[in-house]
């Protein structure tokens, strides 16, 4: 995503601009809020992927009051003081019927799908809620496990999936609605055809490789590259 932002920024014909990228190694809202305000001091507009938290919403409000547009990406925020949201219809992603039936519920198998995620992201809340709603209506006999948190890390995802498989060897599928998809795929790869179906979100170089190798069954990804064909109009600040 960072590479796409850099590439798209340099291709805006009417604006001479450059992208400033910041990665955080923590989900703590204080760190994200501080970084948003720091970027606001050196940038004309700020795009972010953040959890939904009062401190982060307040930082977005402050930037908006200063005339600095803020664009949440992938996951939305509770505040209404952002410029525009760039992401998918998360409710629809969680309810994709064809993928659930063809991948998560293969014919002739019984078991329990598992949802993984971070409850602080609005997009992952919608993925889980809509996925569970659909299965309650269309597969009422299927047991749904409680959501497990990956902490957005592959190592924790590996530990979580390993533990769940030991407790539920008849697991039919896993929906990884957060960071950790690569870790889950790494752990399930040695199981071959005996592994549960794995559905994840967001396509990266690693998840693409797992997808091509058959270690991940489906990736529901935001198509940011489509925006390149649209006409850009610069913000005035």
Can you lay out the helices and strands and say which pair or pack?
Blueprint: H1 2-10, H2 29-40, E1 46-48, H3 54-65, E2 70-72, H4 90-94, H5 97-104, E3 113-117, H6 122-138, E4 148-149, H7 154-167, E5 173-176, H8 181-188, E6 197-201, H9 205-213, E7 218-220
Parallel strand pairs: 1-2, 3-4, 3-5, 5-6, 6-7
Description of the molecule:
With 237 residues, the protein is α/β, with parallel strands linked by helices. It folds into two domains: 2-87, Rossmann fold (3-Layer(aba) Sandwich); 90-220, 3-Layer(aba) Sandwich (Rossmann fold), CATH 3.40.50. 40% of the residues lie in helices and 11% in strands. It has nine helices and seven strands; from the N terminus they run ααβαβααβαβαβαβαβ. α2 runs parallel beside α3 and α7 (154-167) packs across α8. The longest helix is centred in the middle third of the chain and has 17 residues, at 122-138.
H-E order:
HHEHEHHEHEHEHEHE
Number of discrete helical segments: 9
Biggest beta sheet attributes: 5 strands, parallel
Spatial order of strands in the largest sheet: 4-3-5-6-7
Mean pLDDT: 80
The CATH superfamily of the largest domain turns out to be Response regulator
Gap between N and C termini: 25 Å
Q: What is the CATH class designation of the largest domain?
A: Alpha Beta
The overall number of domains is 2
Fill in the CATH topology of the largest domain.
Rossmann fold
What is the helical fraction, as a range of percent?
25-40%
- The coarse overall form would be elongated
Instruction: Give me the CATH architecture of the largest domain, please.
Output: 3-Layer(aba) Sandwich
Oligomeric nature of the chains: single chain
Regions with pLDDT < 50 over 5+ consecutive residues?
Answer: 226-237
Percentage of β-strand residues: 5-15%
Q: What is the strand tally?
A: 7
Mind telling me the C-alpha Rg? 19 Å
- Secondary-structure class: alpha/beta
